[in-house]
Amino acid sequence: WDTSDWESAWEGGDNKEEESTSDKKGEPWLQDCVVSLSPCADLLVVAREQKAAFLSVCEQHHLYSLVLLCIFTSCLNTFFRSSTGRPDWTCVVVGFTSGYVRFYTESGVLLLAQLLHEDPVLRLKCRTYEIPRHPGVTEQHEELSILYPAAMVTIDGFSLFQSLRACRNQVARAAAAGNDVIQPPPLAYKKWGLQEMDTIVDHSSVGIMTLCVFDQMKNASILGGFNASVKGSPPAMSQYVTVGSGPYTGFYYAIEGSSQPLLSHVAMAVASKLTSALFSAASGWLGWNKNKNEEEAPQKQKPKVEPATPLSIRFGLPDSRRHGESICLSPCNTLAGVTDDFGRVTLLDLARGIAIRMWKGYRDAQLGWLQVPEERSERDLSPSASLPRRHALFLIIYAPRRGILEVWAMQQGPRVGAFTVGKHCRLLYAGYRLMGVNSVTSQGWQLHTQQVCLLDPITGALRTVNIPFHLALSDKKSERAKDMHLVKKLTTLLRSRDTESILLDIKHPAVKKQALESLLSNKNTPVSCLVNITRALDDTLKRQEPEEVDAGLLQLCSSQLKLLQLYTDIQQLHSATDYLFFPSLQDSLEGIEEELSRVAPTLQRYAQFTPRPSVSFAQDSPDSPLPAQAFLSQLECTEDEEVKVIRRSETEWNQLGNFLFWSCLCGKSPLHKVCYTLQQAGISPQQLLSLLLSVWLHREKEVLQKPEENVRNLHRLLVALSNMKGAVEESWDPQSISPWWQQVRTTCVQSHNAAAALLAALVTHRAAKASITSRADSKWEAVSLELEQWVVCVRQLEDVLVLQTLLLVPPPPGATGGATVQCSIKTLLEGGTGGIADSVSKWVFRQDISPERLKEILQKRGNKEADDNVEQRDEEERHEKEKSQEDTDRTAELLLALCQRFPHSLSPDFLFAHCCWEYVVQWNKDPEEGQYLCWSVEHLKMVSSPHIQQGVCTMMWSTFIVKRFSAATFLMEKVGKAPKDRLCRRDVGMGDKAMTSFLGCCVQLLNILMEADSAVEEVSAPELSIEEAWSGAEGPASIAELALEQKGVHYPLVQHHCLLASLLHAAMTFSVKVKPFSLFDSKGKNAFFRDLTTIQLMPSGDMDPGLVSVRQEFLLRVLTGWVQAIDDPSSSTPLPSSGPRAEWWPSLCLELGSLLQVNPDILRRHLVCELYSQGLDLRAEEVMLEVEDKDVLGSQLLVLTGQRLSYSLLHSQNQTQAAMELLAMVRSQHYSLLRCPLIPLPQTSRLVGRLIEILPENHAQYSLALHLLEAVEVLTTED
To answer: Assign residue 225 a region: left if phi > 0, alpha if psi is -120 to 50, beta otherwise?
Structure first.
């Protein structure tokens, strides 16, 4: 660079650069900020004027603002601290112009505040524990040093760590609403008054040092003269270095024990501040932006400030016109870099107290240090491997005026790197590691490297500086530096023709090996270039003396050359255009056409339902060529000169198999030549077989397009691989299992590609049979264990193909859907005896097939009603309906075909039990979907075996139902009525409507359980079995098996719970106010929610009349609610089967009345009156026939009749004499009690006629009824 503009003379005072007066509007605002970075580089604190921001790194490595704070600050510092060897949390230390030092968490919570000196805080420096690299080095303790204009405070790191941890625990307890106040231990600190220096702007605490005997005697003679006495052991001293003016650099030494540590009172943050808004910048919750009244109170109670202990300067570097600006201590505590206002950077030797190097032309420079350990790989084999690792020290200098970042080797080394960066960046160097570490906790733990980062405010990028160790060895004669330069040059010239000469010019074997590996892994290098370079290097090594050749490099060259030759040969065989395939008699597969035609329909349906290809990248296509670099990365040569395939990811394995065998499978390559080439290369036939099967199974879609042709090619490849040496053992006994054929069988068993696996099994079965026949001595057909295994495998694969075809059927529009289940023989066997039924039940759920429809399919009944409706629609709708019906029929055919293949595993009871369990599991995941639980109960009703029914009911109740059922009961007991939606969601986990449906399903479930328990004694338990081909299933038991293992239930206890469920369902349906437990006595309450298989003490005998009265009132309200729900007298439509308008509610109330000892006749009379009051006279007449006490009913209906007539007469326009007499008779009956008073007179006349029929003649109100009848007839006649 041209330095004439920014370099100035050292001697002349007038040559000192003046401060720039140019407009700074274009400079970034970050230049005016104080910036500090944590040592782990994951928390950045930026402060400017009266604001600060804490920036943390998220998982995606972006910065985001956590909290914005108001501060009056001069500097910030952050450091990590850990008690377990890992970073636990980050503490932010803030110095204020008032002299206060406050400590915050990374989220801005104040931990403690200290006033140690009443001057502005200038700098904060931290020193953490360093593992000594050499014996005899003094162990340095942790310390936080705070610099003031004329004083310095050092806080012991252990004391600070304990205090901050105690404060953080107290804040956590306060946040949890705890009021337990724990006084943390006080801080131990030392306060020094730095004397004999005009101004101090920065400092460094070097640590404890001990002089050698010579230096001790020298200092004693200089200070005390010829007769000075010398102590026997040199004292330990703490060294402090300051920069500023008068002198330019000062060295202070504090002898240990000369000043006793001071104890401070810890001012903890008030826990109540946690309740304030965390992200509010204006609230002043950190104590930085308080008003005057809030500031006056602390000022009245200022903590006591201890006086400083005077500390005289030992010596310094005097320069009256030079003013130091900053000092940066090296990680080894032996060197320090100092910047000044003359634009110089001075390197200090702290042990000798002298300047040993100076750079000029670095005005406003920012410094950092990087200590790099030597790589282990080069010294592990050396005799000095047990010695400590060497470290290289580099000084980082950022010159913002020039916009460059330089790296200098220490102490007198050259500049090893320079980077052009922006002119407004900030160099961030923490200079410390984690706090809370000592010699015990650091054992076996790798301390992180101190990082040097560069923050660019223009782009927002935060870059780290990384320096390799070997740059410390760089000079003009260093062969390694030259080799590394050639490696860099090689990486830039990989596409050119100069790479061969560059690679041969490298001298160092390790670097040459690194360059060759880099060349072989480069994707842009042509294969021919790789072959030529590798062969040239191999020839060069072979021409050298054996003692001078590196064995590892020679082995790498020969192995990579062999692999490149193999890649080229295979590529040439696949690209041959003159190859023609003529099938011979040996290649024919006898009888394979029959088997293919047998499974062809299933294969076609399977191919139809396989997922369509999705969007993918071109380089991920299986037809894309395999680069040579990928080929080399997956193969390696062994010491036996064989080639071993390295299995990494499934994708890479498939790509390699596709490169080797796909052209052979398509009949485009000479497969015998390919197999011979691979055999000559030394690849084991077992790995080749695995690669062949991988590509066959992976490219299932292409295989199914031409199955016959591809099957023949697969057979020829299998035979060719089987004939290789080491494939089928020569000593193999055909009566035993062959490892070669077992490998194919294992791959097919584990494969999820059912169609390709089945075809591979059919081909391999033929090949194995031919191999066994050729080994047999006789002409009889050989029967062996190997062939029996293949028969079972083929049968299982056919079953899996049909099952997988069914599972691939897409769900109808609007169904729940979900991911398609991929099955294999292995997964089905591991799924246990119920694995097949479990897969089908999940498919039933995805298809949204109703229980009734599933029952029809299993009974082979079609939906004739749908066909009848199709004929009545127009042409377009009929076409869509026929298509939908055709798809439905195909689905039913697939399910029936599957059930025929699994007559035991998919028996109706087996399947319905698993469907029941699948739906209740899905309901438990989303209780709002009440339809799932309803269909679960419906599936359970379809089970014909009472033993399975009872067991499944018991498991459903104990696993999913009883917990929510008890929560619903206690919730209604608490609120005394039907709870609102919010309460239901909070306590039961579902809304009020879903809870009503849930209680109704509970009633049905308990009724099924009671019916099953009653029928268990009459029917024997079913015997569960499984198909012979699947008898090896190992895994969890099926739902049916688990159901049969359940204990019997106690019928009265089940009935007791069913009674409670019915009452809760009625209360929720009709919003009746009731506390459920108030309807039962103490015995009944205690029996609830017990295990249904246990015998409990149940209520017996006559109930208390008061309790019976409460039960009666509840049932009467339920009947009233039902009548109000069906309030449409003119509607002739039948009532629904569920909900509040269901037909069965009155009969349920009568049944509950008999269980609750309530007189059913009272319920009937109440129902008759309610129906007449609602205007439902026909329904009332039906119920009236069952009433026993006609006299009481007649009296009640007489009052109701009077209310009807009262309304009719008051609203009638024809006020005749008869009407007036009748009005005087019924004046006392007010019609407001009627819910439907507007009733035609003929209906009222019919009601009076019914009254005359049921009232006896000697009844007291019989004559009144006759008068009413006469009057109504007169009114009817007049109308």
So the answer is: left
144 DSSP β-pair partners: 126, 155
- pLDDT digit string, tens, across residues 817-840: 667 778 999 999 999 999 999 999
pLDDT in the model for residue 689: 94
Residue 1260 token pair? 């007291």
564 with 639, same domain: the answer is no
Q: Which of 196, 231, 252 is the last residue of a domain?
A: 196
| CA dist list (Å): 99 to 119, 160, 753 | 5, 18, 74
Q: Provide the pLDDT for residue 1205.
A: 74
CATH of the domain at 140: 2.40.128.630
Which of 196, 221, 252 is the last residue in one of the domains?
196
The residue-averaged pLDDT of 610-639 equals: 72
Q: Using an 8 Å Cβ cutoff, are 939 and 912 in contact?
A: yes
Within a domain: 361: no
Shared domain for 554 and 632, answered yes or no, is no
Residue 505: inside a domain, yes or no?
Answer: yes
Contacts of 397 (CB under 8 A, 6+ apart): 337, 345, 359, 362, 365, 366, 367, 405, 406, 408
Among the residues of 1071-1099, which ranges form H helices? 1082-1086
Question: Is-contact 99 50, C-beta < 8 A?
Answer: no
Of the candidates 769, 794, 793, 795, the residue with the CA atom closest to the CA atom of residue 783: 769
Query: Under a CB-based contact definition with an 8 Å cutoff, are residues 79 and 435 in contact?
Result: yes
Judge whether residue 728 has pLDDT over 70: yes
Residue 909 φ then ψ, to 5°: -65, -40
3-state SS track over 464-522:
ECCCCHHHHHCCCCCHHHHHHHHHHHHHHCCCCCCHHHHHHHCCCHHHHHHHHHHHHCC
Residue 291 lies in a domain: no
pLDDT digits (tens, 9 = 90+) for 851-869: 999 999 988 743 433 444 4
pLDDT in tens, 413-469: 899 889 999 899 999 998 888 887 776 666 655 555 678 999 998 888 889 998 887
Do residue 566 and residue 684 come from a single domain?
A: no
User: Which long-range contacts does 1182-1185 make (Cβ < 8 Å, 24+ apart)?
Assistant: 1183/1146, 1184/1250, 1184/1254
Mean model confidence pLDDT for the chain: 81
Identity of the residue numbered 735: Q
Specify the long-range contacts of residues 1017-1026, CB closer than 8 Å, at least 24 apart.
Answer: 1018/946, 1019/945, 1019/946, 1019/947, 1021/945, 1021/947, 1022/909, 1022/945, 1022/947, 1022/948, 1024/833, 1024/904, 1024/910, 1025/904, 1026/833, 1026/904, 1026/905
Shared-domain flag, residues 851 and 746: no
At 826, the amino acid letter reads: K
Same domain, 754 and 844: no
Question: Looking at the structure, do residues 658 and 757 belong to the same domain, yes or no?
Answer: yes
Within 8 A by CB and 6+ apart from 223, the residues are none
pLDDT tier at 1197 (50, 70, 90 boundaries)? confident
Which of these, 1197, 1194, 1188, 1202, lies nearest to 1256 by C-alpha position?
1194
Structural domain span for residue 694: 602-610+625-728+739-767
Same domain, 554 and 606: no
Q: Which of 1219, 1266, 1217, 1264 minimizes the C-alpha distance to 1241?
A: 1219
Q: How many domains does the chain have?
A: 5
With CA atoms as reference, report the closest residue to 675 among 662, 688, 659, 693.
Answer: 688
Amino acid letter, residue 773? T
- The one-letter code for the residue type at 293 is N
SS (H, E, C) 305-366: CCCCEEECEEEEECCCCCCEEEEEECCCCCEEEEEECCCEEEEEECCCCEEEEEEECCCCCE
Verify that 564 and 653 share a domain, yes or no.
no
Residue 976 included in any domain: yes
More confident of the two residues 829 and 1203: 829
Identify whether the C-beta of residue 828 lies closer than 8 Å to the C-beta of residue 1030.
yes
Measured CA to CA, the distance from residue 147 to residue 404 in angstroms comes to 30
